[in-house]
């Protein structure tokens, strides 16, 4: 037994490393959404297309990823995923060099293929290495904790690299992209020499003896309802912080009017504009300098707010917004560490019921509390604070609620599936496409009804997950043989 546990240490560590990569690359579209809003004048809806491109890839790759697991195994699938991920991030880097929005979306789409394949590997692998049940859930929660570390770092890092509004270009995010490619390259080398258990091989031999199976994962009601739960969960996890990022960095009405007035002044006075251009040029390397010349993109964003085409925000610095969003992911880390520590004793159903109930309370408070009610939020380990609407605080606190949902839903949905687990993982990955569709819906609602009203979309999704935890996750198909 001790030898078996020791032999599983390296595979578990490798799965944790892959969890880190998944979060880092998946988190890029959030700060990148702020960048494309500035660089390409994208609306809230369009700013979420990076997530849509990343996650809609799951709809195309989910089933093939499950088939790859069965045919070539966990290790080769993971190696292929890493190679694809390196390519996807490389294409996003290329988009910054040529300044094309469509190329950025292609890069996000390719990255999505990689993330889908990696997710198809790490979740069933950790569940298997943990022996399923509460122990399997505990390992997935620990992996989720590593995932949260990367998710916390990403918005803070890219927000810092962006600097002032004038610096919001994809090219400024290059160090983060280089780091992602470096992680991919290192992980490929390490994974290539690490031995990974392949439990699917034994099941293939047995399936060959028994003949064609008349059942599938879709024969289980709790699995079908679980795939819907994962669809809305990923949308919630991504949509909550991403929309908050856009809300905090969008112009207020007052700033929008100032931008329009200053733009008109600059366009009507050539000498004044020339002086500002010289000043901007002299300070091009000054990271704290705020560009004086109002560009066409900033002018159009301000016009859209005043005309009612888009809604106003809080006009916070992108770096500060990145820190606040990072706090959401940090609380997810805290929640996952707590979940991992109690996972062997507390059932997934109990944890899901608790966190979804708390999430509904946090979201309701965020929606109903007035914007002019502010609170101090810490922004560093020295406990320096900044004033933010209290609604932002409750949005950040939802990170505690979303923390353990992924592992709990996966554990509940595949419990009792036995030999159908690998195929179930592929189907699960298809439904991760909700991470692209749900935020897109929320972005459309934000454009038409305001940022905070868009969180009703999140509220409805969390309410479904509470229902799944209490009722929908019960296995009513125990008569189906799974050995």
Structure description:
The protein has 483 residues and is mainly α. It has two domains: 2-194 and 216-250 and 310-472, Up-down Bundle (Growth Hormone, Chain: A), CATH 1.20.1250.20; 256-302, no CATH class. The chain is 75% helix and 2% strand. The protein has helices spanning 2-7, 9-27, 29-39, 44-47, 49-98, 101-129, 133-162, 174-193, 200-210, 221-249, 253-268, 270-282, 296-307, 318-342, 348-368, 390-402, 405-414, 421-431, 434-449, 455-472, and strands at 374-378, 385-389. Strand 1 and strand 2 form a beta hairpin. Helix 7 packs antiparallel against helix 17 (405-414), helix 11 packs across helix 13 and helix 15 runs antiparallel to helix 20 (455-472). Mean pLDDT is 81; it is low at 1-6.
What's the gist of this structure?
With 483 residues, the chain is mainly alpha-helical.
Strand content: under 5%
Q: Distance between termini?
A: 23 Å
Number of helical elements: 20
- Major sheet strand order: 1-2
Rg is 23 Å
Q: How many DSSP E strands?
A: 2
CATH homologous superfamily grouping of the largest domain: MFS general substrate transporter like domains
Task: Please outline the major beta sheet.
Answer: 2 strands, antiparallel
Low-confidence stretches: 1-6
Give the integer mean of the pLDDT values: 81
Give the H and E element order.
HHHHHHHHHHHHHHHEEHHHHH
The computed structural class is mainly alpha
Proportion of helical residues: over 70%
Give the CATH class of the largest domain: Mainly Alpha
Tell me what the CATH architecture of the largest domain is: Up-down Bundle
Principal-axis shape equals: globular
Task: Provide the number of structural domains.
Answer: 2
